[in-house]
Amino acid sequence: MQSQAAQQQFLAQVDHGEPVTGLLWKGLSWQAMAWHGAEIRQCIFEHNTFVEMDWRSCHIDTVVFAGVRWSATTLKDCVFTSCRFVDCVFERATLEAHQFLACAFEGCLFSECQYAEGSLLDAPILDLRIEACQVKKLVLSGNQQVRLGFKDSTFLHLVLADFDFGNLTLENANFTNLIAMECRARDYDFRGVPLAQSQFTDSDMAGSDFSDADLSQACFKGCGLQACRFVRANMRQALVLEARASQAVFAGAQLECANFSDADCEGAVFRGADMNMTILNRANLQHADFSDCSMTFTDFSYSNISHADFSGGRFMRSKHHAVIDHETRYGSRAGILPADHELLRAEQWVRLS
After folding, report:
1. What's the superkingdom here (predicted)?
2. Most buried residue, 145, 168, 181, 236, by CB count within 10 Å?
3. What's the pTM value of the predicted model, to 2 decimals?
4. Are 121 and 102 in contact (CB under 8 A)?
5. Alpha carbons within 13 A on the beta-carbon side of 78
6. Do the Cβ atoms of 246 and 225 come closer than 8 Å?
7. CA angle at residue 63 from 58 to 66, to 5 degrees?
């Protein structure tokens, strides 16, 4: 009876637009109730359960949730500010247009949730697992003491700002359009991870392993990819512009229409890769291994391919315009377009004029 009276008093305050301040609730079970426009400040919820609740346009400020469980609950247009979540669970919850601002998460779990849109910003602690969830749009930025785990979940648009992948454990996670520019992912294991249309511009990813990953239309512009492994990776239409990829391994990769222009790929291994219409203009490809590659309409123009190995490679209308090829090992040059001397003279004239 006391718990029912407390809940009725709470709902009455919410219905009258009054803020709820400075209260402690222990061990209450809230079920099938609507909180619309609730303002809750400096309260404590300890071992409460929220089942089939409807929270809309709520503002929760400086509230502590300890051992709290949200089950089959909808949270829409809600803002949590400077709250603390300890050992909390969101299960089968739906979160839409949702914000956590400067909130601490300690040992928390999102399980089987539908996360339509939201953000986790400026958390002093972010110890959180996301399991069996469908996440459409989520932004993580400015968080400290990060410890994340993504398992059996699909992310359609995840933004990780200034992120260190060393703080993330992946297990059967699927990403499309992951935005992680200027991130750190040294020696990280991305093997077999779906990462189509993802952006890693200007990130430090040296030594990471992307073998068998789906990187179609991914962007690695300006990234540090030294000694990375992309063995058998799908990199159709990937952008590796201006990347630092010396000693990287692309053996057996699908590189159709990928662009490596202005990249440093000295000593890189492309052996057996499908390089149909791959563009490698102005690239440093010295000592690179292109043996047994399929190079249909591949464009190496203006690149330095000195000491590179093309033995066993198959060319068809491949462009080697104005390349530097000192001691390059070609094997058969059949299929390489003849040098365009008139174009080269015209380019030299333009540079001198």
Report:
1. Bacteria
2. 236
3. 0.90
4. yes
5. 24
6. no
7. 115
